[in-house]
Amino acid sequence: METLANIRIVLVHPVYGGNVGSACRAMMNMGLSQLALVAPRPGFNMQDAAMMACHAGDIFKNRQEFATTAEAVAGCGLVAGTSNRGGLYRDHAKTPREWAPRLLNAALDTPVALLFGAEDNGLTLDDLALCTQLIRIPSSDAYKSLNLAMSVMICAYELFVAAGAFEPLEERSPECPSAMRETMFAKWRQALLDIGFMTDDTADHMMLGLRRILSRGPLTEKDVQILLGMAAQTQWAAQHIPAKP
Amino acid sequence: METLANIRIVLVHPVYGGNVGSACRAMMNMGLSQLALVAPRPGFNMQDAAMMACHAGDIFKNRQEFATTAEAVAGCGLVAGTSNRGGLYRDHAKTPREWAPRLLNAALDTPVALLFGAEDNGLTLDDLALCTQLIRIPSSDAYKSLNLAMSVMICAYELFVAAGAFEPLEERSPECPSAMRETMFAKWRQALLDIGFMTDDTADHMMLGLRRILSRGPLTEKDVQILLGMAAQTQWAAQHIPAKP
């Protein structure tokens, strides 16, 4: 299935080689093949990874490595991040089953990234900010924290099952790559500071709100060009605000 | 959820302690708690199991152990077995998602067993014969074989998700326990041999067919009493068959 081939599993700062190997096997079980690692933690055991990958060793061998999460997802239209915590700007998280059709539809045109955080701490706020979709895997309140490779399996499984019954939307337009989207958000951040809509203290918080609004539906390159233009014009206008006495 | 508490994960002749520990964690993540082991393979590493169970160590500690699969499921109404092979008398296998409501409904009244075979060979034909339901986990043709703990996770996850949206059937009757059902099948096996419906050569094959027919819907104790009576009467009749010259 071509759509599955366009979905990239991104493991951010993984600690245990064995978990990454298990994730490779889970990926191959479910028809995925693209693995990206972001700066594995010191002491990461390559032999454990190869062993646990079992017959999926090629996925591990063919992995890409990146220094930062932003670089790992730079070319990806949709970026979905997993988190099992609630709280601020996470209440729009959905289950893997709910997101699967949206991810498959995007994967027809653009690489799609699925982000998983480190075994101990999960994804950071900076990682989550890069995400257009948040995924919360259903789990029991008695023990919410899933093993890393298990999380990969459940997401991969839902995509594989959904792909079997998948019918793409008729009208579709390619999603904007992450790098261009981030340029736009950086420009808006500065513009909103310039016009005094927010301060340095509140900027991170406010920007998560804007990110959420702009991830409700697809965001194409043309959309982002318009948003870039609006931000530029806003900055131009801000130059005319009289300085405070 | 009470229904989940009534579902027992049965691992038959597991080889690796680590896999059993990972299965315990997956179970607790998904609200399951009953673990049964059937004669772990020599060399099974208890320390690995406890370590990989992580915060689910109590599930491993509270496990039950049995010498045979039949004993492990003797008290269970529904017995569901996982297999990723196709072939004879397995074409009625369904996915974990399809079976989940049936399993939850049975678990309202009776213990339900989910069987998983050893890492190397899976469930034997004898194990599968004990099953009223066959489960086939969807997976890619490129690599069909899932890690043991991963298989447990996917089944547990589907049950957990289904339990959240589960509405029991209005009219329900308790399912017959496995031990009584096996007595009935043994009696029918002898009766069908006695009347010459099958021979020792073909008996295993034919009995799988009968098992399949009688696992299409619920089979209550009263149903099984009737079937026992029919078998007894068939055997009585067989006594009157003239011996071949």
Beta-strand residue fraction of chain A: 5-15%
Number of strands of chain A: 6
Unreliable stretches of chain A, pLDDT < 50, 5 or more residues? none
What is the residue-averaged pLDDT of chain A?
90
Sheet with the most strands: spatial strand order of chain A: 3-2-1-5-4-6
Explain how this protein is built.
The structure is a homodimer of 245-residue chains. Chain A has 245 residues and is of the alpha/beta class. Chain A folds into two domains: 163 residues, Alpha/beta knot (3-Layer(aba) Sandwich); 61 residues, no CATH class. Chain A is 48% helix and 11% strand. Chain A contains eleven helices and six strands. Chain A has a six-stranded parallel sheet. In chain A, helix 2 runs parallel beside helix 3. The first copy, chain A, is globular. The model of chain A has no long low-confidence stretch (mean pLDDT 90). At the A-B interface, helix 2 and helix 8 of A face helix 2 and helix 8 of B.
Brief description of this entry?
Two copies of one chain form a homodimer. With 245 residues, chain A is an alpha/beta fold.
How are the elements arranged and paired?
Two copies of one chain form a homodimer.
Chain A: H1 2-5, E1 7-12, H2 17-29, E2 34-38, H3 46-53, H4 57-61, E3 64-66, H5 69-73, E4 78-82, H6 96-107, E5 112-116, H7 125-129, E6 133-135, H8 148-164, H9 178-194, H10 200-213, H11 221-238
Parallel strand pairs in A: 1-2, 1-5, 2-3, 4-5, 4-6
List keywords for this structure.
homodimer, 245 residues, alpha/beta, Alpha/beta knot, 2 domains, 6-stranded parallel beta sheet
